[in-house]
Amino acid sequence: xxxxxxxxxxxxxxxxxxxxxxxxxxxxxxxxxxxxxxxxxxxxxxxxxxxxxxxxxxxxxxxxxxxxxxxxxxxxxxxxxxxxxxxxxxxxxxxxxxxxxxxxxxxxxxxxxxxxxxxxxxxxxxxxxxxxxxxxxxxxxxxxxxxxxxxxxxxxxxxxxxxxxxxxxxxxxxxxxxxxxxxxxxxxxxxxxxxxxxxxxxxxxxxxxxxxxxxxxxxxxxxxxxxxxxxxxxxxxxxxxxxxxxxxxxxxxxxxxxxxxxxxxxxxxxxx
Length: 272
Ligand SMILES: *[C@@H]1O[C@H](CO)[C@@H](O)[C@H](O)[C@H]1NC(C)=O
Ligand SMILES: *[C@@H]1O[C@H](CO)[C@@H](O)[C@H](O)[C@H]1NC(C)=O
Ligand SMILES: [Zn+2]
Known about the structure:
Helix content: 25-40%
Bound molecules: 2-acetamido-2-deoxy-beta-D-glucopyranose, zinc ion
Number of strands: 10
CATH class: Alpha Beta
CATH topology: Collagenase (Catalytic Domain)
Oligomer: single chain
CATH architecture: 3-Layer(aba) Sandwich
């Protein structure tokens, strides 16, 4: 018993890379996707130490806005970043015949984010595969993860190269907790569309959704999991996200083993 518990604990890993929202003005711009991924992983490892020493709630030193930043064509050559895998929340949170994923979002954001948060939650609630509840808690600029919920928070993480990040903590391949972080360094004085897009995007990752496209410079697909340099038409979840959520949380997987040993996995999409 003890052995299996330890086994489980050691598989706890934070999946951050898939949740990074990268913008062209990253420090030490990578020249290819391999470097980009490596850089992000390093960033994730160092982040804990760096941020401990920073005053995450100090917004003195932030950008005036995103205007004048040169977006360029960093991701044009290879739009692939991340592995396009969907991750599911733990099974006791999934009720396919009762509305799908049952998840609480803890709102640890300060006052400046309440409109964007309420908007994004209401937009995601349009999904018939999500049953979301929210609870406003004390503002937490340290963005501490809490088991079994999605924490949504804001802080000045500095000139990291990302405006938002989602960290899903995984145990044995399923999500145990999620933290969606808004980086005030870029977003404090950004316009509403950029803030709303980032909120929608990071919360979307928190359900386990992957990107729909990772080239920011092609035309927008009309959903907030599509990288973009102009978020206006990408601020909402799209049909593609909603369909993905349905297949993730409204379906039931049945495994049977046939006489010759063949394992058959049947996925039923439950319709109400
Ligand atoms: C906030 O950061 C600025 C520099 O970015 C610094 O000068 C100031 O002392 C800090 N304020 C507090 C309260 O830490
Ligand atoms: C992820 O997979 C879907 C379906 O297989 C595909 O349509 C989509 O383009 C992929 N997205 C990325 C970012 O590779
Ligand atoms: Zn992302």
